[in-house]
Amino acid sequence: MSATTTKPEVLRSADQPLAQYRSIAPLAVVSVILGILSALILTTPLLAPLPVAALVTGIAALRSIRQSGEQLAGRSVAMAGLCLATFFLGLGFARHLARQSSLEERGHEMADVFFRLLEENRPQQAHQFRVTPALRITAPGAISEHYEKNAEAAKELQGFISSTVIKDVIARGKEADPRFESLSSATHDGQTDTLVLKYSYVPKADGQRQPIWVHINRRYDETTKRNQWEVGGVQNTPPVGMTE
What we know:
The chain has helices at residues 16-20, 26-37, 49-67, 75-119, 123-127, 140-149, 151-161, 164-172, and strands at residues 23-24, 72-73, 179-189, 192-201, 210-221, 226-235. By secondary structure, the protein is of the alpha+beta class. The strands form two sheets. A four-stranded antiparallel sheet has the order 3-4-5-6, with helices on one face. Strands 1-2 form a two-stranded parallel sheet. Strand 5 (210-221) and strand 6 form a beta hairpin. Helix 2 (26-37) packs antiparallel against helix 3 (49-67).
């Protein structure tokens, strides 16, 4: 009796693509989707978890593909997710830091001008920094007339110059020597940025410097399409939630 041999089954051409097909790792797909959504970090750094999640899922996808013995595809998809996440994470934080630096510099400049006016005993001009530029009076004659004829404005000015810090700086003049120390906080709400700048000054002749905090507001005006800056207030006690 002769032995029979069986020939290996040859796949028909229609079956070959099915044999070569590998499913894409689900995590790779999730990673690239999160990588695309990572662009939202450019609107606010609070969305930083998106690129972080894309990085985590991308790394997990590459690991699962390697451990599958190449039964899973999607390495390039996972790499795309990783690249997108890395790019937007770096760009987002770079833009945020640049924006914060610009805000701090502009707020610092405005606070310096505000204190300079007080040192020069020009409280009316300094008080005008408390209102938006659209309502701010700059002409010397018009400012004097405004506070002389407007009882409400005169009352506000009196309350302004009677506050401890303002009164001290006006009385001491240049010897008050207000100095910028640091940015205590910066918050963003809609189209408004609020900065709290820490300064120090010399309220008395003993030369002991005391900390003060200046609130600077920046609002985007839809009418003028420009940012409007104003001094929100000055205090000699730490804002709520802050320490010296």
